[in-house]
Please model this.
Amino acid sequence: MSDIQSTITDDSLRRLYQYWNQKRGARRFPARRDIDPLDFSYVLGWVTLVDVTHNPVRFRFRLYGSELAHRIGLDLTGTYADQHPNRELGALLQRSWQEVVDRAEPICVRYDRIVDNRKQPWEALRMPLSSDGTTIDMLLAGSRPLD
Model:
């Protein structure tokens, strides 16, 4: 597994990666049961938990962070990425999340979003979780605007 920690520029996302890495220990992935959102309250509003279903692969927002919801004016909790109101962003999320599933390791990506009618750079960290240690059934993701 490649170490992406050095590529993460946002301090809170770097801390979130360190938390994920600590929780997995010697395993390939931590499980959802290993993750306590209170442990990362410093970034909680920027975190998304994503259910991963297979056959076909689909991604459902289990939890959509309050800061993220505030930024777009909509809480996406309970919806699927392919139902995202911004089709372009929904497609970007699906491709990125699929990459995490395919590679079976965390990724860090940077992209531009239109917020308040202006382009803003963002950084996102996406990390796999697995209930059985093999099949990725959830993602822990954090997204932050870059100043």
User: Anything to note?
Assistant: The mean pLDDT is 92.
